Amino acid sequence: MSKRIGVGLLGLGTVGTGVASILTNSQDRHPLVSELELKRVAVRDLSRRRALSLPETLFTSDVQDVVDDPSVEIVVEVMGGIEPARSMILRSIALGKSVVTANKALIARYGDEIASAASAAGVYVLIEAAVGGGIPIIEPLKQSLGANRIERVSGIINGTTNYILTRMEKEGVAYKDVLNEAQKLGFAEADPSADVEGMDAADKISILSGLAFGGLVDREKIPTEGISSLQSRDIGYARKLGYCIKLLAVAERFDSKEERIDILDLGIRVQPTLVPFDHPLAGVNGVNNAILIEGEPIGEVMFYGPGAGAGPTASAVVADILNIAGINKIGGSKTGLDPLLSAKSWRKCTLINKAETLQRNYIRLTAKDSPGVIGSIGTCFGKSGVSIQSIVQFDTTDEHAEIVVITHKVKDGEMQNALASINASSGIAGIEAHLGCL
Ligand code: HSE
Known about the structure:
Elements: E1 5-10, H1 14-23, E2 36-42, E3 59-60, H2 63-68, E4 74-77, H3 85-94, E5 98-101, H4 104-121, E6 125-126, H5 138-144, E7 149-156, H6 159-171, H7 175-184, H8 193-196, H9 199-213, H10 232-240, E8 243-254, E9 263-276, E10 288-296, E11 299-306, H11 310-329, H12 339-342, E12 348-351, E13 358-368, H13 373-383, E14 388-396, E15 400-407, E16 410-411, H14 412-424, E17 428-437
Parallel strand pairs: 1-2, 1-4, 2-3, 4-5, 5-6, 9-12, 9-17
Antiparallel strand pairs: 7-8, 7-10, 8-9, 10-11, 13-15, 13-16, 13-17, 14-15
Bound molecules: L-homoserine.
L-homoserine binds at residues 158-160, 195, 200, 307-308.
């Protein structure tokens, strides 16, 4: 019998239970899974009944018991939140233990601190489960796509919002009604704000961008809009124009004047965005996620699959545990860390000013249905340097018309100037929606 590799779990919620269930049922999986042994499990409430039956002796309510246990070689953090997760990860690293975490909020904010500590201690912190649930995307970005100069990473990386948007589009149901039902069915959290306000997607694109471009940006500066104020009528109008609406997270290289490889400017955003029906991301529905990578020389490659849930996320966590177990089996990192697997930042990435970011836009406004109004809208856009691709008048009442404008690619600063001058012009009742457009 080979030496067993001790695993300690911090958290036994949905993902933790999924991980424990794989570790305690290794039949027909990779033979290395059978060498992993769950040694300790930290839970918040020792008296709670659990879906998975595990020996009582494994449990503790003190996370530090797990980290400090000498039989635990690999620490798996699946409790979420910033503290005590951050301290426990740093403590594990200081004790020379490699860590697997699914904690995107933590890695998006403290990824550099954690990676530097891990590198100094000669251990790994692996994060495959932090983005895209079961979709392998972290290791492909770190390893399989390493030869590429990445141009853009764009994705649907929040399952809750994609589920809501899919139902709004397919069934014409209002945002609030779908959210209520999704909460009842357990697809949406009781407090869904991190998902519906785009924060979860912003954490994830920050991590993907850090790996794709070589350095983490300041997470708090990523322009982020969610779907909570999205109106069904915009989904309907988009559909008539040949688009669906998705909550897209995008990170793209921005050509800077300075040709330096140690510094890179990026445009990153999370925003409800019109996606043409024939675009690969348009067919990603329900709780599924997808990430489209554009690079040179690969061209386009898309990763698609279940973005959340116990099984898919546990699949990613256990893959990371296996990576570390494999390295530990051949003597660990005594001769240094694998530079691809350890994925330390190798340059400084900065966010460009939002006013400089370039994109197409969808605008819905209400205006008087009278002669000259469309002309004056055109003038406002034209004077601000915004080129209109199409302008369509939809529903009209006795008083008002709804007008939808799609622009060519323009700088956000110019777009904001145009919107300010439209707001100030007589005959326009209001700008009702402003979304991105691919
Ligand atoms: N709440 C996330 C989502 C899953 O809805 O995609 C965990 O990352």
